């Protein structure tokens, strides 16, 4: 991640706090973590803080989810932000890799579709030689790019309605109407 991009991320978070005031306290805490972390560490798999990004993509009234191979839980398609990426690029790339479907920025959304950001505690993973760490996870509402042909998915994916998902994801369904 280039040095100038950290300022973009902070502005990105500030825009989210302005559009979603109920997230302001959480965003302030996340901004503080970002300020205390070296930029190069955010994409370093050995550091204690990693950037990640998730894709919130709907088909009809259901959202795409995957079964995480290590955590063994149902999550949004997501992954680590790589050195040359911004989180929005990661969300798009990971959605394609994990579901086989293509997604793109939702032109109807402000702030590139950023709808949430979370701190996620990740346990140690000896298989990947990763110690326990946290992810600052940027979550983007994207739309299916149905022009492109589906690829083979890396993971098992599901379409879940609002009443089929857990509490963490329920508030994202309000974006179905946007």
Automatic annotation (TrEMBL):
Pfam family, one: NUDIX
InterPro entries in UniProt: NUDIX_hydrolase-like_dom_sf (IPR015797), NUDIX_hydrolase_CS (IPR020084), NUDIX_hydrolase_dom (IPR000086)
UniProtKB keywords: Hydrolase
Source taxon at top rank: Bacteria
Ranges for domain Nudix hydrolase: 48-178
Annotated protein name in UniProt: NUDIX domain-containing protein
Species of origin: Leptotrichia hongkongensis
């Amino acid at each position: 991640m280039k040095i100038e991009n950290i300022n973009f991320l902070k502005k990105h978070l500030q825009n989210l706090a302005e559009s979603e005031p109920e997230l302001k306290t959480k965003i302030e805490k996340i901004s503080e973590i970002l300020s205390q972390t070296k930029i190069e560490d955010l994409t370093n798999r050995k550091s204690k803080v990693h950037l990640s990004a998730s894709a919130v993509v709907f088909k009809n009234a259901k959202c795409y989810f995957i079964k995480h191979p290590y955590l063994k839980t149902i999550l949004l398609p997501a992954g680590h932000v790589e050195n040359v990426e911004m989180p929005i690029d990661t969300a798009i790339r990971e959605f394609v890799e994990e579901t086989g479907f293509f997604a793109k920025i939702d032109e109807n959304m402000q702030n590139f579709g950023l709808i949430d950001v979370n701190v996620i505690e990740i346990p140690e993973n000896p298989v990947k030689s990763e110690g326990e760490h946290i992810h600052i996870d940027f979550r983007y509402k994207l739309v299916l790019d149905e022009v492109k042909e589906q690829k083979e998915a890396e993971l098992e994916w599901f379409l879940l309605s609002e009443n089929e998902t857990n509490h963490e994801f329920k508030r994202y369904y309000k974006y179905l109407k946007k």
